[in-house]
Every structure is written in structure tokens, then in C-alpha cells.
Amino acid sequence: MAKWSWVFLFPLMGACYCQYEPTWESIDSRPLPEWFDQAKFGIFIHWGVFSVPSYGSEWFWWYWQGQKIPSYLSFMAKNYPPGFTYQDFAPKFTAEFFNAKDWVDIFASSGAKYIVLTTKHHEGYTLWGSKYSWNWNAVDVGPKRDLVNEIATAVRKHSDLRLGLYHSLFEWFHPLFRADAENNFTTFSFPQKKTLPELYEIVNKYKPEVLWSDGDGDAPDQYWNSTGFLAWLYNESPVRDTIVTNDRWGRGSICTHGGYYTCADRYNPGHLLKHKWENCMTIDQRSWGYRRDAKFSDYLTIEQLITTLVETVSCGGNLLMNVGPTHDGRIIPIFEERLRQVGQWLKVNGEGIYNTTAWRAQNDSVTPGVWYTWKPQEKAVYAFLLSWPTEGYVILSEPLVLAQTQVVLLGYKPLKWVPMKPSGLQVYLPALSPVQMPCSWAWTIRLTGVS
């Protein structure tokens, strides 16, 4: 691998003038663009050929043909003729009801600040007409459309939304990857001929501001040339100033290297981390892709979703909430309802979410179900109440109050309070009817003038 030289300099985020070398030490030293931490909330979209069988999981092909799980074998035997292959699903990935503007309107209504679309999952099918995925992409077979471009175009018409693209490094059954794996990843045909050309292609063509890598196939980052690619991404790419990446760049890199950490699917540690992180999770608890066999109880309630959002942000993370569209391009009503409900809540309480940072205390040590954020520029502490107290008051033990402390229920008005000893305060909550409530789930108290 050629060593990068410090030939020229350019501004990064208006503060740091540097160029990055293809080593983790250098890559990891890059400051995370500020917009990502300020955004707090994004939408994940898992869409692909797996949306056609829409059974069990987006890992359908692997569970059917790789692991040969009996329920998947039985599903295929009952519903499809002998000799039916996974490739036969692709023409049925029609997207006839897909309208990028409608999707983006739903995402924007949720209050999300960025979206992350799966451009290619582990099945290898690309949602754009990739030159490196001949006849296994959305332009050649299926909808005959560049789905990535349609979404990218619609996202850029919304000033509050940023485009993110997910891309799987490996593919379950690609012969080049399997050959490299048999050689213990001492040969590099697959990354050189497939993965890296695709990554350069989507960055140059669609200019995403989040690049969400996944699926290392148990291969080390040296096999994927991850640091070499990231050095290009941070130094020369058209999005070098604003691009944000995650930590899934090869075996051993997760929760250790890269831009922000994901650590594991549905990662929610419940405490503050020293490094910026993201909780990627699903509204359907059992799958990232759409499932026709999902039960109502499989979907998280709006109360559960808001709790997850509050806990995540209080601990310094971003929440990436996933939906799985149907093969014909619909976002089913329960997904749309949940997203719009989150947006309704954020219209009232978003002041305590966006542009905040973790406070010195993440949750209250006396009152369960109370979480905190902090807005330094306004010197405001936000206390989120996940349930409405039945006693008519709530004790907040963490804030250090002063005579000039002001307490406001967001969406309502100032509240009465009295100091507690040795610290904290007792806040009196009004008796409100349901129609008088500022929102229906979780309430936010803003405290200013605290020590």
C-alpha cells in the first residue's frame, strides 16, 4: 500500500488543517463533523430483494440457503415451485408504489435530521445501477430505476434532512468473496473488483453525508483496505468536510475505530460513553426488513420509542430508527404512524433533544424514569419525565438550584418549585386534562439559572 504524503492542505470544518494517512491512528484523530452530534435522530431504511419474500428477516437468503433453517425451507416448499432461486425474487421487487417525495415527507415529519438508506445489503443487490453489479441491481432487474438517486434527490429538497447511505462490505454468496475467504483473506479479488469500486462509486455519484459500513464477513480491515479508503474519503472525496462514518470497517474495528461507534445492533448502554455513538434499532423488534409475518406485538409502542430516544440522547448517542418498506415501495401505516408520532413529540420537546449534549448526570438518582440533557449555550438543563407523576409533583435530585432558577414545562408555562436539601428541587405539576397536556408521552422540564 502506498504511503500518503502531506502534499497539500485544506480546511476541515473551518478549524483543523490536516491530511489523514491510511492508519487507524491518523483516521481516528479526525474530529467528527459537528452536525452529526447536533442532529441526534435519524431514520434507517432496509429495502432490497429480501423485501419480496418478506418473511422472517432481511437475512432470508442466508437463513434459507446458507444455514437451511427448517422454517425457511418449509416456507419456500409451501409457497414456491421446486428449483425457485433467490435470484427469481428480483423481478418481483417492483417498487411500483414507490414515491421518493412521499417517503421523505414522512421522514421529515418524524423530526429526523438524516436518513440512511441500504444501497446494498449482504445479498449484493444494489439499489442503483452499479457498474460492478451487472444484472443484479435495481436498474437492470426489478423496478428498472435508480432508487438511490430518487431518494437522494428528494432528500436534498428538504433543508433539514441529510443523506446517508448504508453499504455492506461483503456478500454471502459472491464467488470472489468465497474464494478469498477460502484463502483466509490472503487474496483480495472481491474488495478490489467489487466492494471498493462500489464505495467510490456511491460517494462520487450521490455525495452522502453519512457512510454507514456493515458486514465485514469476518475479514480484517486490511483485507478491505479500510484505512486506505477512509484516507481518500477524508482527504479527497467531494464530501470530505461533512462526511460521517461509523465503526464497521473490518473484523475488530467495531466499537474501536472509525468515526462514531455503533458497537452492536440495538446498542443502548444506559450510561455515558467517552466516544460519540449511535443506537441503530428497529421499530419491528424482530427484523430490519419488512415482514409479512409480523405480529402487532412485534412493533415497539410510541412510549417505548420515545423512551429509547431520550435514554440514547441523555447518554450522548444518536438514535437511528429503522423501517422496512414493502417490495412495491410502501411504508406501511404502523411505521408511518410511529414516525409521525415521534415528530409530534419532538415539536414540543425537541428543544431538549437537538443541539444538546450529555449533562454531568444522565438520569436522576432519586426519581426513576427521569433523564437529563444539557444545552451549554443557553445554560439550560432538561429533565425528561417518562411518566406523569401521580403525586402532583416530581423530585429532581441532581440540579443545584439558585434563587434565580426558573422551571418551565415545555409546551405549557412556568412551574412552582421549592428547593430540597442538600440539593435538588421539588417541582409541582399542574392538574391537566388530556387535552391540556402539551404532549401525550413523556414530558420535559427546562431549568435555567441553575448552578
UniProtKB/TrEMBL annotation:
Keyword Signal on entry: yes
Cross-referenced Pfam families: Alpha_L_fucos, Fucosidase_C
Residues in Glycoside hydrolase family 29 N-terminal domain copies: 18-351
GO cellular component: lysosome
Residue ranges occupied by any Alpha-L-fucosidase C-terminal domain in the UniProt entry: 362-448
GO biological process, one term: glycoside catabolic process
EC identifiers of the protein: 3.2.1.51
Annotated site residue numbers, May be important for catalysis: C280
EC top class, as a word: hydrolase
Keyword set includes Lyase: no
Listed GO MF terms: alpha-L-fucosidase activity
Reaction catalysed by this enzyme: a neolactoside IV(2)-alpha-Fuc-nLc4Cer(d18:1(4E)) + H2O = a neolactoside nLc4Cer(d18:1(4E)) + L-fucose; an alpha-L-fucoside + H2O = L-fucose + an alcohol; a neolactoside IV(2)-alpha-Fuc-nLc4Cer(d18:0) + H2O = a neolactoside nLc4Cer(d18:0) + L-fucose
Signal peptide limits: 1-18
SUPFAM superfamilies for this protein: (Trans)glycosidases
Keywords, alphabetical: Glycoprotein, Glycosidase, Hydrolase, Signal
Assembly mode: Homotetramer.
Family per similarity comment: Belongs to the glycosyl hydrolase 29 family.
Function: Alpha-L-fucosidase is responsible for hydrolyzing the alpha-1,6-linked fucose joined to the reducing-end N-acetylglucosamine of the carbohydrate moieties of glycoproteins.
Protein's name according to its UniProt entry: Alpha-L-fucosidase
Organism encoding this protein: Bagarius yarrelli (Goonch)
